[in-house]
Each structure stands twice: as structure tokens, then as C-alpha cells.
Amino acid sequence: MPLTDPPAQPLLEARGLRFARNDDPVFGPLDFSVDAGEALLVQGDNGAGKTTLLRVLAGLLRADAGEIDIDGGAAGPARRARAIAYLGHLPGLKADLSVLENLEFLCGLQGRRRGQLPEHALGIVGLAGYEDALARQLSAGQKKRLSLARLWLSPAPLWLLDEPYANLDLEGIELVNRMVQAHLRAGGAALVTTHGAYAAPPVRTRLLAMTRPVAERAA
Ligand SMILES: Nc1ncnc2c1ncn2[C@@H]1O[C@H](COP(=O)(O)OP(=O)(O)OP(=O)(O)O)[C@@H](O)[C@H]1O
């Protein structure tokens, strides 16, 4: 009889996850999981709770109910720090450091993906030649690209990407999709928020459709 591998744990699993502000429900209860090699597309209208969900998963907000497992164990600070790379609305850059210094600083904090160097990441995101520019001198799209270089350098397997296409031109949108594809091929996973499917990465994708809970609509 052939031996079969035990089923792998999902990289991320949420059970009964719920969040409210001042007793006003924002989302949930939600149940979903994301396997290695898979993207979860989080879709919903403005205010549906997509950013709030990603912030809860990243540990920046506390859920009112439910459980989050990462790699088969309860999500705590150490597990999150090791497993999660978060790309939020704000670039989170040091304005007075150069482009290269920003990446070197972050690699010092978070470590880096095996075999990848800051200079290489800048080439991937189209910022070769900007190494010595100060971060505050970059355009919004260039700042986004620098954040993407940081994401690419992170050794974390689980990417939480909040509207990663914002501020990017068409070529930048394709860049995000190529990065997500390569990350998934390497065994990572990604949650990607978007308003529509217009820029969904062409990878194995599950969909999580978010709508405001009924109680709040009635309010
Ligand atoms: N800091 C905050 N304080 C109070 N309410 C907030 C705060 N941030 C968000 N909200 C509210 O929580 C709800 C969900 O917001 P959230 O930003 O998660 O939605 P979203 O789906 O990401 O929206 P968008 O597509 O516009 O980015 C909204 O009603 C919003 O007004």
C-alpha cells in the first residue's frame, strides 16, 4: 500500500473571526484558510472591512472573537514576526534615509530572503539607479515600489497585501502580479485586498467576499 504524506497545515487559518468597533460590527464571523502556494483575494466595497481584517491578522488590532492559526499554531507575536510581511496603505519608510539605506535598515530588522540582496531587489522593482535618492524625494508610485522591494526581501512566507496596486502604473501592476506568482511558487502565500478582480494575480486563488454585517447596515 503506498504511503501518503499527512495533509499539510494551512499557512493561515481563521475560525469564527469577528471584529467590532464600539459594539458596531465591522466583519465576521469569518472562517477561511490559506495554503502555501495559494492566494486569498479579499474583495469588498469601500468600508467593507478589508483593511481591518488584514490589521487583525497582522496583530495590529485585537479580534473580538475567533482564533487565528499560523502554520498550525496559535498566532502570537513571535509566530507573526516570523511568518508575516505586511504591506499597508502607508509606505513605512524612513524619509531621510536613502533608498538603499532603507532596505539595509529593514534587512537588519527582519532578515532577508535567501540569496536576495537589496541592490537586486531594487532592480526587480524598477528602482535601479535610485540607490542614493532620499526616500522623501520619491513619487508615490516609486515609494510603493520601494515598499515592494522590502516585501520581496522579507523572509516571511505569508504576505498580507492591502491594495498593493494603488499608485502603480500598468507595468507596476504586472510587477506585483509577477512577485506574487514567484512568491507562491517558492512556497509562500498571500492575502490580497482589492475592490474588484481587475488586477487579480494569475495564480491559484480563493475568494473571500466581504460585506458589512447586517446589524450595522440597519443602524
Ligand atoms: N481608525 C478607525 N476608527 C474608526 N473607524 C474606522 C477606523 N478605520 C476604519 N474604520 C471604519 O471601519 C470600517 C471598515 O474600514 P476598512 O478600512 O477596514 O474598510 P476597507 O474595506 O478596507 O475599505 P476601503 O476599500 O475603502 O479601503 C469602515 O466603516 C470605517 O469607517
Automatic annotation (TrEMBL):
User: Signal peptide span per the entry?
Assistant: none
SUPFAM superfamilies reported for this sequence: P-loop containing nucleoside triphosphate hydrolases
Alphabetical list of Pfam families matching this protein = ABC_tran
Provide any one GO MF term from the record: ATP binding
Query: Coiled coil located at which positions?
Result: none
Which keywords does this chain's UniProt record carry? ATP-binding, Cytochrome c-type biogenesis, Membrane, Nucleotide-binding, Translocase, Transport
In the UniProt record, does the keyword Translocase occur? yes
| Domain named ABC transporter: residues | 12-218
* Domain of life, per lineage: Bacteria
Q: Does the keyword ATP-binding apply?
A: yes
Q: Which InterPro entries match?
A: AAA+_ATPase (IPR003593), ABC_transporter-like_ATP-bd (IPR003439), ABC_transporter-like_CS (IPR017871), ABC_transptr_haem_export_CcmA (IPR005895), P-loop_NTPase (IPR027417)
Q: Which NCBIfam families match?
A: ccmA, PRK13538.1
**Protein's name in the database:** Cytochrome c biogenesis ATP-binding export protein CcmA
